[in-house]
Each structure stands twice: as C-alpha cells, then as structure tokens.
Amino acid sequence: MAKSKVVTVEEAMEHCFDGMTVLLPGFVNCGVSETLIDGLMQKGVKDLNIISNNTSIKGKGIGRLVHDNRIKHITCSHIGNNTETVEKVVAGEINITFVPQGSLCEKTRAGGAGIGGILTPTGVGTPMQDGKQLLEWDDAEGKYKFVSPDDPIKGRRFILELPLHGDVCFIHAWKADKMGNVVYHRTARNFNEPFATAADLVICEAEEIVEVGELDPDMINTPGALVDFVVQARKVEE
Amino acid sequence: MDAKQFIAQRTAKFFKDNDLVNLGIGMPTMCMAYIDPSIDVWFQSENGIIGMTGAPKEGEPVDYDVVDAGGSPTGMRPGTSCFSSFTSFGYIRGGHVDYTVLGAYEVDQEGNLANWMIPGKAAAGMGGAMDLVTGAKCTIVMTVHCDKTGKSKIVRKTKLPLTGVGVVDYVVTEKCVFHFTKEGMVLEELAPGETVENIKAITDCDIIVPDVIKSMVD
Question: Which CATH number fits domain A9-100+164-232: 3.30.950.30, 3.40.1080.10, 3.40.50.2300, 3.30.450.40?
C-alpha cells in the first residue's frame, strides 16, 4: 500500500528556508504554483535564488515574490511580461542572469539527469558566451577543442553550459495521486516536467488529488518517485 | 493595408503544406491572417504546443492552460499536441521547425541578428529567440525598413549585442525582400513602386542585384 505524501501548505513550508535556491516552473501565468507561492509569502521566506523561465506578471505568481522583495537573484530567460521585475533589476534590487530558454531547459535537465554539462550552439557569438568555455569541432582530428572567442572559426562552435540544480522545486499538476504521480494539463506542463528532476526536494500542488492507482501509468508525466510532498492547490482566478 | 500588414501578407507566402512554423510575438503573429486557406500550416509555440490557432475569438471557450509564446490564451485545432518546454526546445534546436519568424532591432549584411537588447536600456531577456534562430531551418525577419528616425534597420555591420551570428535567411520589409546567401545579401523582391536605386540609397549595405527582381505581390 503506497504511503500518502499529501500534506498541508504549512507542513510543506517547513522545508523552505531563507536563501534557498528554488525552481519555479511556469510560463508567464500558466502552470505556476500559486498555492505554494502563497505559502512562501505567508512564511516570510526571503533572499531567494530563483530559477524560472520568467517572473509571471505584476502581482501574480512569481510577481508577488518580486513585489515583496523576497528575491535576491533570478536565473531566467525573460522578464518582459513583468514591468516591476524590469524596474527592480534596473535599480539593482534584484540580480539577474539571463539564460536562453532552451539552454535553461537543458541546464536543468543536466542537473536532474546527472550530466556534467551540455554543449549547445545557442548563443555562440552573442553575450551568452561571455565567461563560458567554448568548444569547436575539429573534423580532421575528430574531436572537440577548447577555443577562445577571438580565435579564427574553423568548425562548428558550442558553448559548454553547466548544470543547474536547486534545493526545492514547486510543480503545478492538473492531477496527482496521493503518492505524487503527476499529470500536467496542456501547455501548463512547460517547465514543470524538466524542473521536477533538478531539485533535492520536490513539492507538488495539484488541482485534483486522486487515489493511487487511478492514473493510467502511460499518462504519467512525472513519476511519484521524484515527488516528496503533495498539496491541494487552490482555485486560481484568471 | 498598412506597412505591417503588407509585410505579414508577403511573409505568409513562404509557408507550404505541413510546414512547422514559429511566429514570434508582435508583428509575426499577423501572418496567421494572410495564409492561403488551401495551405495547411502547423503553428508551434516554444512553451510546448504544436497546433495552436491564435487568440480565441469572442464567444469561443478560453482555456488558460493553453497559452502562446506571449503567455496569452490560444486555441487548439484537432491534432494538436502539448509537451514540455524541454521537449519543445529539443524540437527547435534539433532542426524540426521549418520557419521561425521574428522582429529585429537590426540585421546586418552578414545575416547577423540583433533583437534582444540595446546597451544602456533595460533588457527584457532573449526568451527563446536565440534557440529558435540557431535551430530553425529558415529564419525570417519581419521589420519596417527604417526606424522612426528614418535610419535603415538593415545595416552594414551591427554593433548591438547579437541574438545569433549569420542566422538570418530572409528579411521582409514593406519595400523589399532580401535573401541572405553564401554570396551575400540579394535583393530578391521589390514592393510595387519601389526601385533598386531607392533601396540602395536608403540601405547602406553591399547589395547583390540579380538580373530579374520579382514583385512582392506576385
């Protein structure tokens, strides 16, 4: 008999702490863990290092953490949907590291899959290669060589992007069973699926919690083995 | 028809049956309205969907779990598939997207694209643009030919931080279409009433002028 991982938001927040690195999936407002962010707000967790694709919109989702100055650093690909984040970054109140969206996916996948880094052509010749190791394929020798940005280009170049890993990840499920098997809904899957692999602790909020055995094994997007706690998500006003 | 609509109308003619197309937010989204109804194109959005149909019309149901690259609700056609952003960017980087269509701050004659930051101004971030221009089979830039000050957005050498190096295949403006080839930047089409001389006068680039230049409206 599978043990239930269902807890209250308050119980889940016992594992969240100041200065933690938290992976927050979601695409603008879609697939964001609003209920668990409520928990962070209520507990007063601060100095967060956030890994996310963006910062929702002003006053919603991750935007609430931005507004209340809970964030020390963000690693993300885009903040254009939230003017308040742009203002706070310009004012130096939040540090930011931009990562191309696809590289953000692969970096977290590497972090979650035990891979030491990935080689991507994305960002070669742009500011994204600054401060990173650059490799070039040498066809004659059949191997990669490290190169400097100023070296003459002789082959296809790739940036060595390092893995990303966090302390905690919040995922938003459409349905989860009591042991944390998860099904996402439509494009709300977005970063939830890759991010769920890349944290020490994964907390899932689910719109609907069902009994173990109710979900078709072939339909499960994130297996319960990766999920530590399950929380009932509140209804979100759109 | 204004300049942007004209650019969208021409750009929409690139697509063929079963092409997988990513339209950036803003002007590129306008292409949807100009696709020949006999052509069956599939629209992809990098957050994780193939088969989106655009913003639901008034009275149509809205599902906030189905959003486009701007985070706004979009419709789905029969045959739509949804997947994670990780999978989506694998499709993009892996060369499975036929066309990516984006805007630009500047494009230079070597096909370098700058569309994500201007030094000294607050940057919103590149989102998926760098992956899209790196991975898509064909990159089309839609832009008005000149900025508000009358300066050409197609330049000899851009000094702006790049989105991608040598990634642009076509630039479509309200005045002409440039095709970026190994030989250089080819003036492939002209808008009705435009002349080679005028394009050369407003665009400070090495422009290859072929013997035959097509009309943008043929």
Answer: 3.40.1080.10
